[in-house]
Design goal:
The chain is an alpha+beta fold. The protein contains 7 helices and 17 strands. The strands form 4 sheets. It has a 7-stranded mixed β-sheet with strand order 4-6-15-12-11-9-10. Helix 1 runs parallel beside helix 3. The longest helix has 14 residues. The protein is globular. It comes from Cyprinus carpio (Common carp). Belongs to the dwarfin/SMAD family. Keywords: Cytoplasm, Metal-binding, Nucleus, Transcription, Transcription regulation, Zinc. GO terms for molecular function: I-SMAD binding; metal ion binding; transcription regulator inhibitor activity.
Length: about 350
Amino acid sequence: MFRTKRSGLVRRLWRSRAPAEGDGDADTGGAAGCCLGKPGASKPNPGTEAELKALTYSILKKIKEKQLEVLLQAVESRGGARSPCLLLPGKADARLGQQSFPLPLLLYKVFRWPDLRHSSELKRLSCCESYGKINPELVCCNPHHMSRLCELESPPPPYSRYPTDFLKPPDSLALQERGEQPHWCVVAYWEEKTRVGRLYSVQEPSLDIFYDLPQGTGFCLGQLASDNKSQLVQMVRAKIGYGIQLSREPDGVWVYNRSCYPIFIKSATLDNPDSRTLLVHKVFPGFSIKAFDFEKAGSLQRPNDHEFSQQPRTGFTVQISFVKGWGQCYTRQFISSCPCWLEVIFNNR
């Protein structure tokens, strides 16, 4: 019975491995500010499928049954269900073809990113119990406690600025302190030019923003009543899925794309504020990007980008669009034309 259950878990895990090909781009029309290392962009093949299967089976059969259950929960839910750390020896190596991989890296390749080459491409999520800790013997190998690092490209040529009436900040932004822990940001959800729902004040270190997420707590966009009848808006809303994770960490604010589609981000601290406009960065599923740097923001001059000059706290705003991009390389020049997007305004006090 013990072997039967273990063998069943191993078979289910192998069937749930990451596909070798990427899902493709959800919004064609250019790659301005694109994350490098798009899934499926490169296809290293250090070993055959049969070799990979044999190696994966041999590794999984050495893992304790309860740990296999943890790994299966994380993999089958695609990170949607909260799963504990999977602590395994970090120095153990596995050989695939002509290459040798550390055990954690191999598991990340099998269950999330087949094109992954080196651990330097990864960032541990703040939800992981091993975050910020150094243990030379044991390493968390839960593939959904990790994200890919988003690398930034150089800005494209500037394009025309936004119209002067692009965005009027809501009056309720002057939030009153109520004797509770001060918020570090507020989040507004928009559908095209209309703000939907209330402003969400964030006190906790990390926040999940999603449409539908198993065991999810946070800002649920699926519960917001929308009067927008646009088919495109409805389609994009349904594609938000697990959405994003917004986390305040010691070096700044990170955004992790938990959905199955790209997101697009614009922030004053990601680019040179002396340029005429700020770059829109594309972040693929499973990738993280440091969207905001408080220290850098404090020394910024007023950005020339007209969009940010209209904000109540110039430079202390990040804009995030789901699925659809905007800017020079897209048909939508302004974020107000995007079907579903977020405005994150940071407390600079």
